[in-house]
Protein: Protein kinase domain-containing protein
Organism: Erythranthe guttata
Amino acid sequence: MTRINFLGQLYHPNLVKLIGYCLEDDRRFLVYEFMSRGSLDDHLYRRMVHLQPLPWNLRMKIALGAAKGLAYLHSAETKVVYRDFESSNILLDGNYNAKLSDFGLATRAMGSFGYAAPEYMGIGHVTSRSDVYSFGVVLLQILTGRRVLDKNLPQGEHKLVEWAGPFLASKRKLLRVIDPRIQGQYSSMAAVEAATLASKCLALEPKYRPTMPEVVKALEQLQETSILT
């Protein structure tokens, strides 16, 4: 209850607002603001037939909004480690503004398979830099349009991070992993900057990952170069 009260007091444009809650026996019901366009996950993988592939500029807008929400949670004011950051927890309003949901309520130590940072998988240690790793995974999903784990793909391409990682450092090979549905919508410079940022977030050592405010700054600069040249 104390945790829910605390989360209910948090306000940021990129967090889904907790409107109320109800406790009945051992069940807990949370009421959030309505997010009309569903989740980022819905759009990337077209979970509803009518959804069209997100264009590059909207993808970068969503990435920046999610980064701002995560940076706020990590701030000295709140000091919240998300723990379960993934594409299904990034919700979109009518204008495709990204808002984070379920922050700070994870009952498990760390999030879903494929999003968890190496240090958690190794020793169970979770910090704000673990969230940065998870953000890097989501950014990779945004860039590639692929799922974190997809066994329908050829052997060697099942795990997104393992498959895409080697391509991120090569300008020549990078375009092979960008979602083909958005070909021609971005400049080569923007693609390189986005891939470089994802690679930094996915660093094996937490100390080499950027902070979320640094990620926000990088994405803001990236938006300036996202216009096709």
In short: The beta strands are 18-24, 27-32, 90-92, 98-100.
